[in-house]
Specification:
Length: 455
């Protein structure tokens, strides 16, 4: 019984586990299990030995589970095993040891979680830098592989902290996968598709790139889309650019429309959209040119301004449309060549400027015609324009009536001209004509005035 007494004393002696690390504590606990095993092997001759044997069976099962979970790095499960063990054991000293191990395990878990989180932070920081610098989808794929390998090999313990970090890396992987689509479209010169993918990415995905990096990429793609070099960076875009370079007059639009029709039949994506847009825009120009050639000048003049289909070539097509409208104004009204609008000057503004220049030259027939055109293309809703046009008409009628010897009617029309409002009113000229008539034909003036007049 001496050996048995010594063994029982050893089992009941407090565990000297404080201050040891987790591995040391587990080794000490394992030794206790070995002592339980030795006690159990002595048989069940006494109640004490039977109790020790029962404690050993419970110890052996729990220790095996604990050891397996710790070796797998699954601290969450290890803690659950210890908590269940603590709830079942009746040995006070074992409870003390398990409580000590539980505290050490939690401390180890916190330290490892903090260390792993720091590694994930550094990994994603490096990945973000590499991703911003990536010019091709293959470079982004390498970044994605690095993250996936860390996730699969370093975060496979299954505990809660690892799952949280693993989910964070999953979001990064999804982002990089979508980022590769942006890079692939950019590399192919399909900048509109790249912008669309980037917009979808910004709306629908969690990003580990900061807003400054995303904005910089957005700005780069926009500049590439709008730059002259950006629009002809693919073979199809270069064909489109070469075709549009040949469209120097409205008559060139028909052949260019046919080319765009062919391109749109076999392309896709942004190239297809551009070809379709140009086909429609050039088609409008073709129809406008046909109207001009057939003498349907009014339809050309009253064609609504602005391009219905936006493209990098919209300004070029719009200038050709404006040239047809200006030529139609001249042809329909027997005017000499009017010239071309200034850069950025719309058709109505050009017509009004031409009217001002004609006014300054006292070309009243031209002023009247251009004011009439201006009123028509602006919807006819400007009362001041109508007033100025009527004043010029009255002045021209006064001149004709004066030449015909109808001095009384001439005085009435000159007087009506002066009464109208607006800057482009030949008041000085009408006043000079009235002064001349008053001197040469005073009988043409009515004592009560010469207004109203027919309009």
């Amino acid at each position: 019984m001496k050996n048995l007494s010594l063994l029982v004393l050893a089992l009941l002696f407090p565990f000297a586990l404080l201050g040891q690390d987790l591995d040391s504590k587990l080794q000490s606990l394992q030794k206790v299990g070995e002592e339980f095993a030795a006690a159990s092997a002595m048989g069940s001759a006494s109640e004490s030995l039977r109790a020790i044997a029962g404690e050993y069976r419970d110890f052996s099962s729990n220790f095996s589970s604990l050891q397996s979970c710790v070796q797998d790095g699954n601290y969450d499960q290890s803690i659950r095993v210890l908590q269940r063990w603590l709830a079942r054991t009746k040995n006070a000293q074992v409870k003390t040891a398990l409580t000590d191990i539980l505290a050490a395990l939690k401390k180890e878990q916190e330290a490892r979680a903090a260390q792993t989180a720091a590694r994930v932070d550094e990994l994603l920081k490096t990945a973000a830098t590499q991703l911003v610098a990536a010019k091709a989808p293959e470079q982004a794929a390498k970044v994605q592989t690095q993250i996936e390998e860390f996730r699969d090999y370093e975060l496979n313990t299954g505990d809660r902290a690892s799952r949280v970090l693993s989910e964070r890396l999953n979001r990064a992987v999804n982002f990089i996968n979508n980022w590769q689509q942006v890079l692939a479209s950019e590399q192919a010169g399909d900048f509109s598709s790249a912008l669309q993918s980037l917009n979808n990415l910004r709306r629908n995905s969690s990003s580990f790139l900061d807003s400054a990096a995303l904005s910089a990429k957005y700005q780069t793609l926009l500049e590439a889309l709008m730059s002259p070099s950006g629009k002809d960076s693919t073979p199809i875009s270069r064909i489109i650019a070469q075709t549009m370079a040949k469209v120097k007059s409205p008559a060139d639009a028909a052949s260019a429309t046919a080319v765009m029709s062919d391109i749109s039949s076999f392309t896709s994506g942004s190239e297809n959209r551009l070809a379709n847009t140009l086909q429609n825009s050039l088609g409008e120009l073709v129809r406008l040119n046909n109207d001009f050639e057939s003498g349907a000048y009014a339809r050309v003049i009253n064609q609504s301004g602005g391009n219905s289909y936006f493209s990098p070539y919209s300004a070029q097509i719009e200038r050709l449309k404006e040239s047809l409208r200006i030529k139609s104004v001249a042809a329909a009204n027997d005017l000499p060549e009017l010239g071309l609008p200034k850069e950025g000057e719309g058709f109505p503004s050009f017509i009004r400027r031409m009217a001002v220049e004609a006014f300054e030259k006292n070309d009243w027939q031209r002023v009247y015609t251009l004011l009439a055109v201006y009123s028509s293309v602006t919807g006819g809703g400007c009362a001041r324009t109508a007033d100025m046009r009527e004043s010029v008409a009255a002045f021209l009628a006064g001149q004709q009536l004066e030449q015909a010897g109808q001095f009384g009617d001439a005085v009435a029309h000159y007087s009506s001209c002066i009464a109208h409002l607006g800057k482009l009113v030949p008041r000085a000229e009408a006043a000079a004509a009235l002064t001349r008539l008053r001197k040469d034909h005073p009988d043409a003036f009515s004592p009560t005035g010469n207004i109203p007049v027919l309009k």
